Every structure is written in structure tokens, then in C-alpha cells.
Amino acid sequence: MKQNKLKQKWASNQPTLNAWLAIGNAFSAELVASQAFDSIVIDGQHGVLAYNDMLSMLQSTAAYDVTPLVRVPWLEPGAIMRAMDAGAYGIICPMVNTRAQAEELVSYMRYAPLGGRSFGPFRAGVSAGPGYADEANEQILCIAMVETAEAMDNLDDIVSTPGLDAIYVGPSDLSLSLTNGRLGAGSDRQEPEMIEAIKKVLSACKSANIAACLHCDSPEYSALAFEWGFNLCTIGSDVGYLAKAAGASAGKTRELLGQASAEGTGSAY
Fold first, then answer.
1. What is this structure's pTM?
2. Is domain 5-256 given the CATH code 3.40.50.1980 in the classification?
């Protein structure tokens, strides 16, 4: 089986750059994968894509030196197993709030005797190369999202779950949950209380010897998070890149013409 390069880089403490893919299109995914990223996440939770979109995106990005991850819609065995069978080298699961849920996630991702994953990697068995059945338990990354006040209360129990490889911090939901909506949603948090919470997750991951990942929205904030000690940062998304570049181009042209620039819609990611 082809080795998981993202896992190898984490083992040698290299910072890894991730791109978020929410547009259900193989060509746009390929364009992003061809850039200088270490990994990509295909967003099956909030992204505007279906299973066939995910499959074609995994296929179109396979030629590039990026590790393909999938964020599944929920802690549900069918969706998790289908994403791995399609060729995902890691699963990000949202809203993991307890040790029991973390253990459930691990069980869905590992073949017996380590878990209850059903065998049938039709594409993964081809795309990952020979030996998939023997090595998938070791190579596929199991990543739980911490993004609620409940998860923060159970943080030490979650990060110490056997078989869990990493925590991915979702700052938008975490802010909404920890502050009862007072600070709103969004990445690149500047508030001292949110930075404290994010660093608390980082410290817990370090103590448990698992990787820490953070959803960011800019190279500047990602660089800061890497300085703190995060192993992976998402530094932008296909939606954000498209909206920002289109808005900048239109805005600059109108500026040169002496016209007022209309506000763009921006991006949630």
C-alpha cells in the first residue's frame, strides 16, 4: 500500500499545509491539488457535493503529491466506510463530543480485530496499491473534530482514545458553542478567550502524542498557528480562492474605471 505522506510528515514534525475543497468539481479540485499543498480535504458535510463528486475529485487529484482526506457528514458508519473505500487516506469527523463517540469513530475506520470496518475497498484497493487490506489500519488517519463546549469539557478523554490520530479544531462552531454565539462564527480567531481555547486543544494533543490541526483562513494566521505548534493548518478553500480572486479582479477594474466596487458575497470557508 502507498504510504500516507501526511502521517510521515507529522512523525518528523513538519508543518503541513491543507486546502479545503467544497466545490463538487473534479477539475477545480485538480487545480488546487496541483499547487504546493501537502493534503486536501473534500468536504462532504457542508460542501456542495455528493458521493459521485467526491469519487471523481479523489480520482482527479490522485496524480498529485497530496494526501486526500474527506470530511464526512456525521458520525455514521456507512458514510465513513464509503469514503475510505473510495480512496480517502483520512477521515475528518465533525462534532465528536465524548470519548464514547471518539471510540465509535475509530471502530468504524479499522478492520478487525481493531474495529468493525466492513471489507470492500473496491477503488481504494486499486488506487492505494497492493497490501491495502494489511496496511489500511495503520495508514488511514482517524481525525476527530473538536468544536463544542461539551468536547472541550471531555478533551482529555477524547485525545487519549486509542487509535485516534489527530484532532481538527473547527473554530466557527467552537466560538458559537463556547460563547453562546456572542462572538459569532469565523476562522482566524483574535479574541484572547478563543486563542486560549485553541491552545488548550493543542496542548492536550501534544500531551496525548497525537497531531493537532486547525482550520484557518489565511497564510498569516496559519504561520502563527504553526509557530504555536500545530501540525496541520487549512490555509484556504476553493470557494474562498475563487471568490477572493474574482472580487479582487472586478474591484480593481472598477477602481481603474473610477466606478464604485460592489461588495462580494465572500465565503464561509
1. 0.95
2. no
